[in-house]
Amino acid sequence: MELQKTDTESNGGLSDEEYEPFRHRRVKKPNSTNGTIIHMLKGSLGTGILAMPSAFRNGGLVFGVIGTTLVGLIYAHCVYLLVSTSQKSCKRTRVPVLGFSETAQSVFRHGPAPTQRFANAAKAYIDYSLLIVSFFSVCVYLLFIATTLRDVINNELGIDWDTRIYILLTAVPLIFVTQVRDLRYLVPFSALANTLILVTFGITLYYIFREPIDLSNRELFPEITALPSFFGTVVYAVEGIGVVLPVENKMKHPQHFLACPGVVSIVLSFITVLYNVTGFFGYARYGPGTRASVTLNLPSEEKLAVSTQLLAALAILFTLGIYYYVPMDILWRKVKHYFPVERHNIAQIGIRFGILVAMTGLALGVPELEPFIGLVGSICSATLGLLTPIVLDTVFRWSTPGAFGVFRWRMVKNVILMAFGLFILIVGTYFSIKDIVEIYG
């Protein structure tokens, strides 16, 4: 990121309260508040919304609404914890901006004595976790596009090509999409992808509501064994923690991010309502036969339905650019010193292409969409989206008298939220791996 940090000494004797990080930010090509909303929407909108009926199939109609709303509120709170902790760390260390991993490093370095020696490890953990999360998401997106193309093309042409062939075909346009490097240039792609997803959503709702819906044979509450899959899918659908600080750090008016109403409240309120509507009525329409993406349930003999499936695939194709931005920014900062300056351009091209090849290979190895979504949600999204912001908030407050409030209620709240995140991480991962083993065992 092209950000200039203020020299600590230049701030003289400013206290934490007097130092205002936003005044010292020097951001080249800042994003407007509307542009930030678009990026945040794109961070959570994607295959996730189309997987919500599948989540409700596991959670039931009543519990599905309750659980999705609960996850939306928890995730919104975790985003608030992460951004507010980062902003408070900026004030404490008198620097204008901190990224995700730099926030973790700062929190541990200036936290209680036992945590200080883990500061560098915390930074490395966030960096590599973001790489894993983002690249796993690339695999999910590849599988979604390939599965959609398989269903459409095989049906239209009367052929029986394997999903793996379509994974390889999908990788070809991604060679070009994943080479876009500037976040500002990705705004049109994000806006177009959001538009296509909303069009897909609208047409999907048309098919869901065009005939009366019978709820008599639909589950209202889940089986206990289905809960991990439900929460794993919902957390995956909602979570987009990797883009939060990068887009907040590039805002022209960062004070609008946590305002009420602000970017976080607007985006996540909209997302939660949208996901509940899609999940509830999608499962209500298609019942036990609901597939990993609801678009795959649309009638293959109707041209409108087929075009909707292709629009969804195209929207996800454009999404890959923003998902590539965060991990490649992290990775390039770690490796660019190994290359001469005059070879930086060719090096970036080669690295971006090489990672795409690796992720394509992983998708070829596990070409099943539903268990992969649950696995990514359980391992990656629960760790970064839920657990990490809670840990950072707890460590930051630990040495500050009264920071946890009356009766240390913030500590109690954090412990409860951490238990929820650990439940998704441990139990969800177990059942997702179990499903994959059963498919390929």
TrEMBL record:
Membrane-topology descriptor: Multi-pass membrane protein
Signal sequence, renumbered to the chain: none
Compartments, as annotated in UniProt: Membrane
Predominant localisation class: membrane
Keyword Metal-binding tagged: no
Domain Amino acid transporter transmembrane: 33-433
Assigned keywords, A-Z: Membrane, Transmembrane, Transmembrane helix
Top-rank taxon: Eukaryota
One GO MF term attached to the UniProt entry: L-amino acid transmembrane transporter activity
A GO CC term attached to the entry: vacuolar membrane
Listed PANTHER family: AMINO ACID TRANSPORTER, GH04538P
Protein name from the UniProt record: Aa_trans domain-containing protein
Organism: Anopheles arabiensis (Mosquito)
Organismal lineage: Eukaryota, Metazoa, Ecdysozoa, Arthropoda, Hexapoda
